[in-house]
Design a protein that fits this description.
With 388 residues, the chain is mainly alpha-helical. The protein contains 15 helices and six strands.
Length: 388
């Protein structure tokens, strides 16, 4: 006797239901969420190509109800990123906002921006980062993932996301970044000789012979520069400011006062005389900012100004064009180390909180230890700057 097949159990009152809708060519899930205040039954529907997809959507919908968060159906990754960039970075440095915007526009939005935030999975984020690993260094990948994480966190705070799948992902290994380099003595002399007579000459001399960061040199004012000996204190520069937000230096130890080599003093005196003449010739057109280094109109230099002019000088010196202004600081450390200056002394001069940073990141040449700073630079360069 043939057994009659069992009929599918009909869903009971108040239970969720999944069924095939031939007209829509989709499975439909009807979710039971109780009753509205007006007495009408809450029974929203979700759709999917498979029962598994529908069950997942039912689970997410119930989770939203339980947590009180309702993710907008059409809220995309692009929406979340743009909301964070516009509202979540208020009060941040303009350069920080620009950096995050650039990362998002180039490497995030074009690739996963169309995905609905509620549907974004950790696998999606993994696949996206693996794809970008062929184009970006590991540090850039880390920054890129941070943009996505913070954007979703921002959406969560505004009840537009239930969970942050970006925190479940590990940054892959990216392309190896270009390691920083240091000029050797002959290269350093060639760069200074090529810069002689340019607006950037005094800037480069100060950076290379004192180890001042480029972000510390740009906002430097004359009232922090002492070009003569006073009360037994030798010529020095007070590195107390930077172009960072609120003018703070990079770290507490970065706020320092350092003696100036005689050759830097001579070049800065010449630069001051030249600047006074230029300001007098321009009259009211010159901006009286008190800055040591300015544009032709007396305005503060920005990083782009310095990089552009430095590339031209490096090219004139016969070196490869990929050298950057920040590598003058690396060169300062390496030249002092090569001259036998103790590592702990160099760390103080450059404002590092630990000499491990000096050794691991900045020192490109290795020699043993002995003596000290500003005097050493006068010996290293002897009178090459004056003769250039």
């Amino acid at each position: 006797m043939t057994e009659t097949p069992k009929r599918a159990r009909r869903a009971g009152h108040g239970e969720d239901t999944i069924y095939w809708d031939a007209a829509k060519n989709r499975y439909v899930g009807a979710v039971s969420l109780g009753y509205a205040p007006n007495g009408k039954r809450r029974r929203p529907k979700v759709h999917g190509k498979t029962k598994t997809e529908v069950r997942a959507k039912i689970r997410d919908l119930k989770n939203e109800v339980r947590t009180g968060i309702k993710s907008p159906a059409n809220y995309t990754v692009t929406d979340a990123v743009n909301d964070w960039l516009e509202r979540g970075l208020k009060g941040r440095d303009e350069q920080t906002v620009s950096k995050n915007r650039s990362l998002a526009d180039k490497h995030l939005i074009p690739f996963i921006g169309r995905a609905k935030l509620k549907d974004l999975s950790a696998d999606d984020v993994d696949d996206w980062l693996d794809d970008r690993a062929d184009a970006l260094a590991t540090r850039s990948l880390r920054d890129l993932l941070a943009v996505l994480r913070r954007s979703i966190e921002h959406a969560q705070r505004r009840d537009k996301a239930v969970r942050n799948v970006a925190v479940l992902v590990t940054v892959p290994e990216g392309r190896p970044g270009r390691p920083s380099k240091a000029l050797n003595l002959e290269q350093a002399k060639a760069v200074l000789a090529a810069a002689r007579g340019s607006r950037l000459y005094a800037y480069l001399v100060l950076s290379l012979l004192s180890g001042v960061r480029t972000e510390e040199a740009r906002p430097l004012t004359w009232d922090h520069v002492y070009l003569s000996t006073q009360d037994g204190v030798p010529p020095h520069v007070a590195v107390w400011r930077s172009v960072r937000r609120h003018g703070d230096t990079k770290t507490r130890k970065s706020r320092r006062t350092i003696a100036l080599p005689k050759q830097v003093v001579d070049v800065l005196n010449e630069h001051l005389r030249w600047q006074k003449q230029e300001r007098a010739s321009k009259g009211m057109e010159w901006s009286p900012t008190g800055l040591v280094f300015t544009t032709r109109s007396g305005e503060p230099l920005d990083a782009a100004n310095v990089r552009r002019d430095f590339r031209a000088i490096v090219k004139k010196a016969g070196l490869a064009p990929e050298w950057t202004p920040r590598e003058l600081r690396h060169s300062f450390v390496s030249l002092l180390s090569d001259h036998g200056i103790p590592l702990e002394r160099i760390a103080l001069l450059v404002g590092h909180s630990s000499q491990a940073t000096t050794e691991a990141v900045y020192r490109k040449q290795l020699r043993p230890v002995i003596t000290q700073g500003a005097e050493a630079m006068d010996v290293i360069f002897s009178h090459d700057i004056e003769e250039a």
